[in-house]
Every structure is written in C-alpha cells, then in structure tokens.
Amino acid sequence: MRWFWVAVLLVVGGVMVVAHSAGKIGVGYAAKQLCSGVFVSELPARFVLDHDIEPRLATVPLLSEFLTTHVNGVTASARVLTAQASATFRAGYGCTLHGEVDENLAADSAATEATPGVALMKSQTVTEPVAPVPDTLAAIFDGAFAEPPAGGRNTLAMVVMHRGQLVAERYAAPVTTATRLQGWSMNKSLMASFVGIQVAKGKMALTDNVAARLKALGVQAKTFAGLSEA
Length: 230
Fold this sequence. Notes:
Layout: H1 2-40, H2 45-57, H3 63-66, E1 67-72, E2 75-80, E3 83-90, E4 94-98, H4 109-114, E5 126-127, H5 135-145, E6 157-162, E7 165-172, H6 185-200, H7 210-216, H8 221-229
C-alpha cells in the first residue's frame, strides 16, 4: 500500500510540474500581450483579454479558466495557479517581460474588471474614416470582418493600397487609424524591405549598423520604435 501512495504522489507531482510549465508559458504571453495592448496600442484591458489573450489560452485546457490579470501603473501581470509573470512598459521601447512577478502585483479576477477600459462584445462596430470601401471590394471587406459562429477570426483592421495610394480601409472599434497594432513577424519583413530599398538607393550598406545609420540619415527613432514595440 505504501508504494501505491508513493506512486500517486509521484504522479500528482509530475502533473503539477507540467501544469506549472504550461502555466508559465500562458502567463508570459498574457502579461506581455496585456501590457502591449493597454500601453502601446492604448486599447481597453477588457478588450485585449476578450479578443486576444483568452481565446489563445483557451487552446490549452484550464489555462483561461484559472487566468487572473492586473494592470498596475505601467505594469501588467498575470497568474495561472502557481505560475505568474509581469511585463513593464517603457515609452519608446514597448513592453519588457520579466521572469517573475512580485506577490504584490498578483491579483484576483476582480482586479481585471477594475482595469481601464470598457467591455466589448464580439459584434464590433466597424468604421471607414478616411477611405470608404468601394462597392468592388465591399464583399471582401465584409467577409474579412464577419466573425464565424465559433469565433477566432478577430479582424481588427484592413487596409488596401494600390501603387502607393490608399484605396480602402476599415477598422473594428475601438481600433482607429491611430492605433498601433502588433505586426509580429511582419515587422521583420518591413524592416528588411526598408533596409533593402535604402541599400538599392545607395544610402545604406549591408554592413551598416541599422540604428546608427538611420540616426545619421536623420530618421526619427520613434518612427521605427513604434513599429517594433507595437
């Protein structure tokens, strides 16, 4: 009987280790996304949770159910059972994820509701502030913004450019033309394209330090900091 309970304890311990490891990934993502969404994109915390964090954590059983978050000053924190993490915003640099979070930053689910912003449902209000969608593109835009019954599309913005001209644009409230949205790996592609164009123009060399060369060219660092931090 003794060995039976030893085996049970080992199994429970193993499950806890796995759960903690999975939780660390979840809280790391949640803290960073909440920080970026609130402080960089300036979106309501509840909106970021509903449209980004919770749908993604829902792919792993129990993560979203046990998730609690808090925004305090310029820091966003997240907890799932024994796993916790925090991310801090610095103007011009974006949000930095920390390995551990102070116990004072952890909060229960009620704190999440107290964070700035308003709750928004999946049925979003779309706006066309500058370049309304022409009839020839209306069906494409409507399809992109239509949310399937099971959710998961979550289109926030759509812009069409042709030969350097803005043809059409649409945004899902509270996103506007001024909202800085995360570009993920697109940022790397855009920066690589920009550098390639400057090399082709003879303004840069492949061996140049990009940040130093941009500064020498008189390009404001905030222009590119906004791209990377969002």
